[in-house]
């Protein structure tokens, strides 16, 4: 309890999304990438790679020796080299061929893209649950007239269900964006230090076709068949991060819009978010029913929305084929964006699954 704990991890987000951005997921994926690289290089004719070396690597893909890696990173000041050495101590026969021909971004960037893809699937699944809850409520309350508001002034009548379709439509647009990203998100693949595959051309004695096949085969082994990025420097373009952060921001915007409306309607006593039997509304005023869940959605949404600007600046500030001033920033912005949206969606599902509508109060305002 004597060090800072990120509330997104310790307080709010789901185990599923936490694991997706965990060190275990990250570094076991590095090892899977090293295995895929070795397998593809062997298949394409590199005689120095043996099946027994690959098998030894497979036996240790999940059993990461954390203390060895930490000690090596302290010594070498390089996380990828530290984990190559740590993996090599467990797989001594394979040590000479781990990371053969690759650069750090081979494991770093490809792992980021795998975590982004898997995170998008988690977000998509939660979006579908929220959309279903909104649909159910919109249908249930479609015939209850309620006072509409423009400029937060009384306007013409609408219905409770019709108002909910405004929220529903926003999340459907978000789902389209998420589906598009899942479908089109590319893999960096095996591109080398400046995107020319020069080190792999050397390994394959100048055979360009084998280098192309290597890129394609590794992507296939990692679940990105026929989806490697067309061109790159050492890294994939950080424009992709901006697109992802924008999609996360879109979900957060929709959540904040819905939650803000609910907060206003709770003040009018027309709607209540769920309130548990022993829940305390206020430490000083126990009778209060504060819109705690909707307020939390709004609070977290502002943070998620702000990260889009971060991604734009990171992309705009990249130099030539690679620069390292993106690294520390992306370790924060990408995971925290997904963790935040995960919380927003799970809160929104809880609210919409258990929302209370008070028809008699609504009727008095429309009489």
Question: What features would you highlight for this structure?
Answer:
64% helix; 367 residues; mainly alpha; two-stranded antiparallel sheet
What does this entry show, briefly?
With 367 residues, the protein is mostly helical.
- Strand content is under 5%
Structural class: mainly alpha
Mean pLDDT across every amino acid position: 95
Count up the helices. 14
Q: Number of DSSP strands? A: 4
Report on this structure.
With 367 residues, this protein is mainly alpha-helical. It has helices at 7-12, 15-20, 23-43, 51-58, 66-76, 79-90, 104-140, 160-184, 198-203, 208-221, 239-267, 292-316, 327-353, 359-366; strands spanning 145-150, 153-159, 271-272, 356-357. The strands form two sheets. A two-stranded antiparallel sheet has the order 1-2. Strand 1 and strand 2 (153-159) form a beta hairpin. The longest helix has 37 residues, at 104-140. It is elongated. It starts with 6 loop residues before the first helix and ends with a helix.
Topology overview:
Blueprint: H1 7-12, H2 15-20, H3 23-43, H4 51-58, H5 66-76, H6 79-90, H7 104-140, E1 145-150, E2 153-159, H8 160-184, H9 198-203, H10 208-221, H11 239-267, E3 271-272, H12 292-316, H13 327-353, E4 356-357, H14 359-366
Antiparallel strand pairs: 1-2, 3-4
Helix pairs in contact: 3-4, 3-7, 3-10, 5-6, 7-8, 7-13, 8-11, 11-12, 11-13, 12-13
